[in-house]
Amino acid sequence: MTGAIPGERGNMSVIIALLLGFGILWLACKVLKISLKIFWKLFVNALIGAAILLIINFFGTVIGISISISFLSALIVGILGVPGVIILLLLQLF
């Protein structure tokens, strides 16, 4: 994978960034007084986005598509979920 960060330290920074993104999402829901049901929908969306990001990097190397997994990209996916992956993919392609 050309976009992935090698080594254990890189994996830990991605996990921390995703958790930070989830934390920001939770805090935004608390501040805006959004119900727990909506928060869980957003949380699941962020998890699906993270899984899609990893799948794109795993299978995308075959067709030349790769999104670098960095602290910022993990944070974007953690906050925005699937739309965040789409934004990163579009930025990578153009």
Task: Give your account of this protein's structure.
With 94 residues, the chain is an all-alpha fold. The protein has one domain (7-93). 80% of the residues lie in helices and 0% in strands. It is built from 4 helices and no strands. Helix 1 (7-31) packs antiparallel against helix 2 (36-63), helix 2 (36-63) packs across helix 3 (71-80) and helix 2 (36-63) runs parallel beside helix 4 (82-93). The longest helix has 28 residues, at 36-63. Residues 1-8 have low confidence and may be disordered.
Secondary structure layout:
Blueprint: H1 7-31, H2 36-63, H3 71-80, H4 82-93
Helix pairs in contact: 1-2, 1-3, 2-3, 2-4, 3-4
Per the principal axes of the C-alpha atoms, what is the gross shape?
elongated
**How much helical structure, as a percent, in the residues?**
over 70%
Which value, in Å, is the CA radius of gyration?
14 Å
In total, how many domains does the architecture comprise?
Answer: 1
* Number of DSSP helical runs: 4
Q: Give the termini separation.
A: 20 Å
In N-to-C order, the SSE pattern is HHHH
State which percent range the strand residues make up: under 5%
Mean pLDDT: 78
Number of beta strands: 0
Sheet bearing the most strands, described? none
Structural class: mainly alpha
Low-confidence stretches: 1-8
